[in-house]
Amino acid sequence: MDMTSLMLLSMVVLLLLGFPMMVPMMVATLIGFYIQFDGFDNSRFMIQQMFAGIRPASLIAVPMFILAADIMTKGRSATKLIDMVMAYIGHYKGGLAVSTATACTMFGAVSGSTQATVVAVGSPLHPKLVQNGYKDSFSLSLIISASGIALLIPPSIGMIIYGGIAQTSISELFIAGIVPGLLILVLFSIYSVFFAIKEEVPTVPKASLAERLKATRDAIWPLGFPLIIVFGIYGGIFSPTEAASVCVLYALLLEVVVFRELKVKDVLDIAKSTGLITAVVFILVAAGAAFSWVISFAQIPQAIMAGLGLNETNELGLLLAISIAFFVGCMFVDSIVVILIMVPIFLPEIERLELDKVLVGVIITLQVAIGAVTPPFGCNIFTAVAVFRRRYVDVVRGSLPFVLLLVLVSGLLILFPQIALFLRDLAFGK
Length: 430
Hints:
This protein is an all-alpha fold. 77% of the residues lie in helices and 0% in strands.
């Protein structure tokens, strides 16, 4: 059995035995290292690669954004954003569903986490959707699918990980994800309106002017988060890492001082939770760096590309191959792991064809968003099962239209790259 097959087999077997993903990655890396270097005498090089993988300064943004998201999820920011959206569009036909999709997008622009968005937005709005005549399957699918927009609207942890591996500007990735994210919101909203008309879903009472003004006033503070991230980076005031740190400070001031929702003890508990999540992410990144180094040294990516006939393909063919590979991979494995494993495989061909790495990053991030809501192992699906206490089948039953819309946007990005790139080009003068 050759080295590639042995590494792949070890990962599959260990995953089936229930080991956390970091274990299969490290075991496969050790197997590849042992075969490639005839033992572990030079194992210090592998350790060096692991530390090099978590050394980039851009990765500091990851725990910062996780911490900011945790603070806001435990506080009142999400509720205030939801109330403002509902006050303005909740009374239109399909308005409650459109409000849900919009609230997911806005909170995604605050948290950068799909699972945090499912919890923060879905918990208050799912009962309202059902009570107002929407099918439970539609409501659940809308929430988990719209929460995926959080991966495209900055901040995006997936983009940060990709940017570190591909050595691409994270600021440019953040700006390039905005228009595709908003396009998905528009398509979800259109479908929600048609669904409400078809199913004759009743509308909710229209908010008064006083209620709208109050909701807007209450939401002004939480709306500061996307302003810090987008305009701070766009205006050259912050780097993504600095923006993440400012977001943490802003979240603390908002929830502890302004809203007085959290106490010092709560913040310490949130910090511990963030530390645990960050440790898992960074162990995966370190393992992924060592894995990438071993397979690159053995020229496995080139062999895989040649075996698939992709080393002679054109730009369109490679983008389609990338989309399919990440779409299928994220259906079964955690998105960060898929990014860590697959980006190094495709990177040599991306560079050979001189593809815009920012465009590729947005397309990959969109595939990750699709994978998060697609059976069998989409992370948003299991989050919804746990949060809403529904059967797996109930959660995924209505997801097909939303997945098809996400695939449509993916196709549009491949055929018309400027959908993602024109705002980046405008912002950075390219």
